[in-house]
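Here's what a typical entry looks like (Bifunctional Prefoldin beta-like/Prefoldin/Prefoldin subunit 2):
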Amino acid sequence: MSATDSKIEVLKTLEKERIRLLGQMDDVGQDAAEHRLVLKTLSELPKDRKCYRLIGGVAVERTVGEVLPALEAHANKVTIANEHLHADGRD
């Protein structure tokens, strides 16, 4: 394999990695948007209303008042992760 061929392989590998990272950035961005939508919807409901939350693939019955704080904390983490990914992507 010549030096040119090895450089081409490195470039192809880097391009695949870039595409994979862009996909992850898109996924995290969509997760953040979904969290905001759910938070907006739940915040308009009575705190004692029954709702279900998926935990480890299992739907667990809770109240809106129980779910909102945990969902807000998770949404903040997702938003921070999204901001970090976009900041790292610009570097």
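The mean pLDDT is 90.

More examples are in the samples folder.
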